[in-house]
Specification:
Blueprint (H helix, E strand, L loop, with lengths): L17 E4 L3 H11 L5 E4 L8 H4 L3 E2 L1 H4 L7 H22 L10 E5 L2 H16 L5 E4 H7 L9 E5 L3 E2 L2 H14 L3 E3 L4 E6 L4 E6 L3 E3 L3 E3 L18 E11 L8 E3 L4 E5 L2 E5 L13 H14 L8 E11 L6 E4 L6 E5 L5 H18 L19
Parallel strand pairs: 1-2, 1-12, 2-8, 4-14, 12-19
Antiparallel strand pairs: 3-7, 4-6, 5-6, 9-10, 10-11, 13-16, 13-17, 14-15, 15-16, 18-19
């Protein structure tokens, strides 16, 4: 699931304004934002940029389904979704890369009366916040999705939700970063952030040492392994298995969520996911994982059972204990920044995260409330 971008050769003898550790969507967006303001930026990735969680996801921009109305991160998630309205044409104009954005909303289906009541309550709570949301009864849902499963009672419909091609999005963000002067080095794993007198001075890789005054931790599930961090990062890899089949002929395209599974259209294909497994750094697919995915998605669209399986894969989401990312400066080390732990929200929050880190680094403030993403919220109290 990796990707390649044109890149410059990084120079160890040169000092960079900022080194971004990790070339996924979050790291790419951060590099793009900083390079766009004239900073000299180097992106270092342990493998291929976009080859881990960013390349393995389904590309959903669905905060109204994945985030509850009372979750403090919802305003940030909604703002991140809305940022795409400007970002997509910007990237198309500047890079010519089609990031595959598509609107049309999303639905979260209910299989029993309890789920239906919970979703109807969410519709009311979201409307109270000024968001567009509807409850679709069985008949209305069947008009939208004629192939909906017989056990489905209805669904929450979020018309402003959308989707994007996460692979081409990462490529476009990196290409635009390079266009603005950023350098990208793949297969160069950062092992240590060098700190002197409570200030970042460099990062180390197997090849050597790169001088910098700022380092952004955007290495996803691998972030806690970095040496030199002043605090433990409670981020663990959570495996998500995915299958791809042909999209059922005659079924209108649309994102559907069920009980821990989803269906996302992409061209002539249907992306089916996903598991949430604590399996360390193992990225293999399993019979049990595939069974969970197919059981859940076929319950939503029974015609999926007749489709040809095209491919399967698994990726590792970087998950924090509360499901929110860690965004912002380290309070104890000047020049150390965090943009990691996005879990299932990396594609949604990635571009806005990059701009938030840029604003904090260059202007000392951001327009967004990132208190739910506080870097210190997991610090042990004594």
């Amino acid at each position: 699931m990796g990707l390649r971008v044109s890149r410059k050769q990084a120079e160890m003898s040169t000092s960079y304004d900022c080194i971004v550790i990790g070339g996924g969507i979050v790291g790419a967006a951060t590099a793009r934002a900083l390079a766009g303001r004239g900073r000299r930026v180097l992106v270092l990735d342990r493998a291929m940029p976009g080859g881990e969680a960013s390349g393995a996801s389904a590309g959903m921009l669905t905060p109204q389904v994945e985030v509850q109305a009372d979750d403090p991160i919802l305003p940030l998630a909604i703002a991140a979704r809305e940022r795409y309205a400007e970002l997509v044409p910007e990237l198309d104009r500047r890079t010519g890369v089609n990031v595959g954005w598509a609107g049309g909303g999303s639905v979260q289906v209910a299989f029993d009366a309890e789920e239906a009541a919970q979703l109807e309550a969410q519709v009311g709570a979201q409307r109270a916040l000024g968001l567009k949301a509807e409850w679709l009864g069985r008949a209305e849902l069947a008009r939208r999705h004629p192939g909906i499963g017989p056990a489905v009672l209805g669904a929450l419909f979020a018309p402003d939700d959308a989707r994007v091609n996460n692979v081409t999005l990462t490529a476009a963000l990196l290409a635009d970063a390079v266009r603005s002067g950023a350098e990208v080095a793949d297969h160069e794993e950062v092992t240590e952030i060098v700190v002197d007198s409570a200030r970042v001075t460099a990062v180390k890789t197997a090849r050597g040492r790169y001088a910098t005054a700022n380092a952004v931790v955007a290495a996803g599930a691998w972030s806690p392994a970095l040496r030199g961090l002043p605090r433990a990062l409670p981020i663990e890899p959570v495996r998500g298995q995915i299958a791809v089949v042909t999209w059922p002929r005659g079924e209108p395209a649309g994102v559907l969520f069920g009980r821990h599974t989803y269906i996302v259209p992409r061209g002539e294909e249907a992306i089916l996911g996903s598991t949430m497994e604590k399996a360390g750094f193992a990225k293999d697919t399993t019979a049990g994982g595939m069974a969970t995915i197919f059981t859940g998605t076929i319950a939503m669209l029974p015609s999926l059972a007749e489709q040809r399986i095209l491919r399967t894969w698994a990726g590792l989401r970087p998950l924090t204990p509360d499901g929110c990312p860690m965004i912002g400066p380290d309070p104890d080390v000047a020049g150390l920044w965090y943009a990691t732990g996005h879990g299932r929200k990396g594609v949604l929050l990635g571009p806005l995260t990059g701009e938030i880190v840029r604003d904090l680094m260059l202007d000392g403030k951001t327009a967004w409330d990132i208190s739910p993403c506080s870097v210190t919220r997991f610090d042990k109290r004594t």
